[in-house]
Every structure is written in structure tokens, then in C-alpha cells.
Automatic annotation (TrEMBL):
Record domain Cytochrome b561 bacterial/Ni-hydrogenase: where: 10-183
Any single GO CC term annotated in Swiss-Prot or TrEMBL for this entry: plasma membrane
Transmembrane residue ranges: 16-38, 50-71, 91-113, 142-164
Protein's recorded name: Cytochrome B561
Organism for this UniProt entry: Tistrella mobilis (strain KA081020-065)
Membrane topology: Multi-pass membrane protein
Listed cofactors: heme b
Chief site of localization: membrane
Keywords: Cell membrane, Electron transport, Heme, Iron, Membrane, Metal-binding, Plasmid, Transmembrane, Transmembrane helix, Transport
GO BP: any one term: respiratory electron transport chain
A GO molecular function held by the record: electron transfer activity
Amino acid sequence: MQWRDNGLGFSPVTIVLHWMVAALLVAILGLEIAMAAGPERAADMAADTGLAEVQNLLGLVLFLVSIYRFYARITSVHPLPVGTPNPVEVIVSRSVAAALALAMVLLPAAVWLSRAAGGAAVVLPGGHALPRLIDPAPGLKALVDTLFAIGGTAFLAGLALHLFGAWKSHVVLKTPAVQRMLGKHVEL
Ligand code: HEM
């Protein structure tokens, strides 16, 4: 089995992790929306159904998977582009992809740090809590929250660009880039 990407294609590990991260992100954002449904309901729902704990667990899995994924991204060759894209677009799309992979490490870490600085623990289903990284520090929490807001906005902008690139190559340029990311063998 091919474990690492090479010039000819993505490895099955990369493909599985890519879609796993996308699914985790959708689930985490979906839970965030569900919990923000209303101020009173949010507290009830979180307490009754343990949604916050499930979200914490998904965030932990995302964080751990993303550490390997970012390492693999920056230490593997990015496969040759399909079709004949503009070289500037290739550089931009690869840089955005690497930045997205890095954001999936930094943003969960910022949440963990912010919770600890606010005196709160990251509680998982079953009541297990992750160790608090630091003692409560309100000033640091405000700083981390600001950085999270900036980083989160930049991440969403990068993701929008990434999705636009996928749409453009699939619908406009009609290259098999998306099919390749779904595991199809593509002749270069
Ligand atoms: C429906 C959602 C998505 C679609 C359609 C999509 C599509 C693609 C495609 C077609 C490629 C291959 C680009 C190439 O050939 O060079 C790719 C690569 C990549 N995508 Fe996405 N993507 C999606 C979601 C995401 C998300 C949520 C993230 C990260 C948060 C992400 C991060 C990456 C990264 C880092 C790569 C480089 C390969 C790797 O190391 O995994 N993508 N994506």
C-alpha cells in the first residue's frame, strides 16, 4: 500500500484523512449551530444530551488526526496537478491547502488553551476531562480568543477559496481533480 503522496497521486491515507477531516469539521460546526439555537435551549441541550462533550471529543480527534496530516502534507511531495492549470493557481492552491491543514491543528489547540485560561476544562463524554494546559489567566484568554477569531475567519476564507478551486476545476475546467481526491486513478 502507498502510505505517502508522490508526484503521481495522493496516498489512500491522505484521501481518507482529507474526507475524515471534512466530515469532522461539518459535524463540529453543526453541533455549534445546534447548541447556539437559543440562549436557554443551548444550556438545556448541552446539559441534557451532552452535545458539548461530543463536540469536544470530535475536536480532540480532529486535533490528533490533523497533527499527522499537517506533518504528512509538508513532508510529502504534492502530486502533479491534473490538466494544465496556471502556475500561479497551483502555488496558491497548494499554499491554501497546507494552511488549511495547519489551521486544523492550531484552532483546536487555541480552544483548549482558551478554556484552560478561562478556568474551564475540556470535558469528554463519560466525564473524562483533558488536562488543563495552564492556570486561569483572563488576560491570556482574551488574547487567545481574539487570535482564534482572526484565525477562524482566515480559515473560513481559505476554505471558501479551496471549495471555489474544487468547483472551478470540476465544473468549469472539467479536470478530474475532485475524482482523484475521491480515490480514482488519474492518468497524468
Ligand atoms: C467538500 C469539501 C471539499 C472538497 C470538494 C475538497 C476538494 C479537494 C481537492 C479536489 C483536492 C485535491 C487538490 C489537488 O489535486 O492538488 C483537495 C486537497 C486538499 N484539501 Fe480539500 N476539499 C474539501 C474540503 C477540505 C477541508 C474541509 C479541508 C481542511 C480543513 C481540506 C484540505 C485539503 C488539503 C490539506 C488538501 C491537500 C491534500 C491533503 O494533504 O489532504 N479540504 N481538496
